[in-house]
Amino acid sequence: MIGERIKSLREKKGYSITKLADLAGVSKSYLSYIERNMQNNPSLQVMAKIAAPLDSNIEYLLGKEILPKRNQEETLDEEWRAIIKNAVDEGMSKGDFQALKDLVQSNMWKNSRVETNVHASQKKKSSNIIILHIDN
Amino acid sequence: MIGERIKSLREKKGYSITKLADLAGVSKSYLSYIERNMQNNPSLQVMAKIAAPLDSNIEYLLGKEILPKRNQEETLDEEWRAIIKNAVDEGMSKGDFQALKDLVQSNMWKNSRVETNVHASQKKKSSNIIILHIDN
DNA sequence: TTACGTTGTTTTTTATAAAGAACAATAAGT
DNA sequence: ACTTATTGTTCTTTATAAAAAACAACGTAA
Prior knowledge:
Strand content of chain A: under 5%
Largest sheet of chain A: 2 strands, parallel
Number of strands of chain A: 2
Strand order of the largest sheet of chain A: 1-2
Shape of chain A: globular
Number of domains of chain A: 2
Number of helices of chain A: 7
Oligomer: homodimer
Structural class of chain A: mainly alpha
CATH superfamily of the largest domain in chain A: lambda repressor-like DNA-binding domains
Distance between the termini of chain A: 59 Å
CATH class of the largest domain in chain A: Mainly Alpha
CATH topology of the largest domain in chain A: 434 Repressor (Amino-terminal Domain)
Radius of gyration of chain A: 24 Å
């Protein structure tokens, strides 16, 4: 339930119910109800106000209760997003990526060294696979 | 605002306000208010009920209005997320991804023949690149 | 033309979310 | 020991979310 999430985050921050209620700008009585799931239908604005001082957001507070599955799995971190966005902007298609990914399956990139050679040159450090391209 | 999102999705599905209200189990009057942003503080349950028949979810409906920044920037295409998450779970590092990205860009691999050798063996058909793994 | 079905709106009512107490219980201080 | 703060809870009130209903505007059909 939604109450647990809030309580957990609140205690992690070391806030009392009263303190969080003040920071959020909601009544402590209402916050108490919510935490104990005696009131499980707060408004969006109340949720947003509570989430803010917890440095959280509505989705997280909702957890898996209401939201459909896609939002439950935790989000890929920011760095990844940037990298991928960049790649997509540069024209990489899903098909391209999948094809290459399938080549370099699972454990291949776990503990190995690498270089990337395309057409007998083009080096790539910071990776651990050698990809050697051969024309036909 | 939140109203636009709902209206847009609703019309995309070809639903009338009355129809969506029925499907969602909320009153059409209230739905009308929400769409026109005359009521911008619905409860979580109402939001969830409206989102369901639209095959959507609360976050999307919220858009960038209430949620903190991380949720504002448009979400990376779901399909990409799944693909990347999967690859990461299989052990792909950021460096690995960059290497693949560069390969994709070079476009060379597209029309060529391939084999995959890992540790001097491990073949991979149905592709056109030789990937040669080397331990360190 | 009159009537009927749908559309979305505005008015009215009622249910309940959320506030504002007042309260008991534990802790800290003098 | 008796205060004086905090804690979180429960009772009471009031503000408002949400329903129900009545309405106007448009189309369609008999």
